[in-house]
């Protein structure tokens, strides 16, 4: 099988990392692949905030946890609605846990952000995918942290702390680290959602 296709099929979201740093050169190499992602009209709108400072990552995780704790309190009166109840339960479990259930103690967090303009989300999503595929090819695990995207887009205070312009939208937050182990194979994929028009 073609090595690129094999890499795509072997990629998995990793949430358990070794306590091992990724070299700056490797991080640069991974981010460079993101800069080669396709973009509408070749505008390349992405900006990358790369966090390798453990204390900063831990503080960011705590800030996100606090934000979710406050949302859980505000949402409690609406928990009679089934959809809200399920979301509140999930947020509550993450917010109350002693573990880092946002960045999973990853040694690197990359935040992709850009002005909130047409097609920029798609462009930055392609860049995020390149990061995750490049990481996998280098035996580095990755995970797109959607819970972080939500909070960072609602907190100008956290953006300011990280030096991200308030006018920018967080398009993707990706954790990177050497995995404790890579799963042997990908989870089964659905086939019923493929339709042909011939």
Summarize the structure.
With 198 residues, this protein is an alpha+beta fold.
Shape: globular
Q: What is the CATH level 1 assignment?
A: Alpha Beta
Element-by-element helix/strand order: HHEHHEHEHHE
**Helix segment tally:** 7
> Ends: how far apart?
27 Å
Q: Enumerate the strands of the largest sheet in spatial order, edge to edge or round the barrel.
A: 1-2-4-3
Describe the sheet with the most strands: 4 strands, antiparallel
Considering DSSP H and I runs of 4 or more, what fraction of the residues is helical? 40-55%
Mean pLDDT: 90
Please tell me the total number of domains.
Answer: 1
Task: Tell me the β content.
Answer: 5-15%
Q: In the CATH hierarchy, what is the superfamily?
A: NADH Oxidase
- Cα-based radius of gyration, to the nearest Å: 18 Å
CATH topology: NADH Oxidase
SSE-based structural type: alpha+beta
How many β-strand stretches? 4
Per-chain topology:
Layout: H1 3-10, H2 24-35, E1 47-51, H3 54-75, H4 82-96, E2 108-115, H5 120-137, E3 141-144, H6 146-152, H7 156-162, E4 168-177
Antiparallel strand pairs: 1-2, 2-4, 3-4
